[in-house]
Here is the input.
Amino acid sequence: MKGFILSFKSEFYKSRKTFGFWGAIVLPVAIVGLIAILTFFQSSKVAHTPGMMLWLGYVGIVSGFMGNLLLPFYIIFIAYSVNNIEHKADTWKTLFTLPISKWSVYAAKYFYAMFLVFLCLFLFYALLIGTGDLLGMLKPSELHFSDYNIAAYLGEIYLKLFLASLGILSIQFLMSLVWADFLKPMGIGLLGIIAEIVANVSKWEYVYLIPYAHPFLVLTNLREATRSTITGKTPGAMPSLSIDIITREVWVSLVFAVVIFFIGFFIVQKKSVK
Here is the structure.
């Protein structure tokens, strides 16, 4: 465990000046900040919109763009950047000659990549809640964000997005572990994204077996669950929104993550230190 902690800290120090690390912070700040500014200056267009619908529209703009496009591409880049540090400096052999087990080195890299994805999604969640509440205080007569508390529901959404992203992360992490160049992992990742788009457009019933489709499926199921909740609510009542977190696309994502994680470790075990 000590070796894992040391390796994890080392990953932080090695990557703290890279775009892979700062992207987890800059992307949420830039995107949510832009949407918040636009909402502030165009508040008259959504004046008197009920609090729950206002929140759903505000969250939907950011989450839809992020889940469909930004998140898969960011995961591809994160997986590459974590391993590229060693490829670029040719320090794999040096790492494996240290008095730390290969398991600790490999697991620390993987969980650090997972941490960056979690950090990015958590900041999206926190900034959406924070900016929404701030907008409600700045323009209470037009933006009724304070009329509804969406924090728990939004937390479920982003937790599910995180779990659904682990399959993509594991695949991309394995490829960037094997290949030093960016083109091969990026090319295969792009093919995976194209495959999920084609499968979704054609409404293939087994699309949930494609890991790159999982973030999109989470948001699709989210929209359907939200619509059915709102449609079936008691007149005059404010519905309590919730989603099922562990669904089939999440199960498939977790299975991919676990299986490929151990395949990656097997590959690492075979790496020579001579």
Q: What stands out?
A: The radius of gyration is 21 Å. Residues 51-89 form the longest helix (39 residues). The CA atoms of residues 18 and 81 lie 8 Å apart.
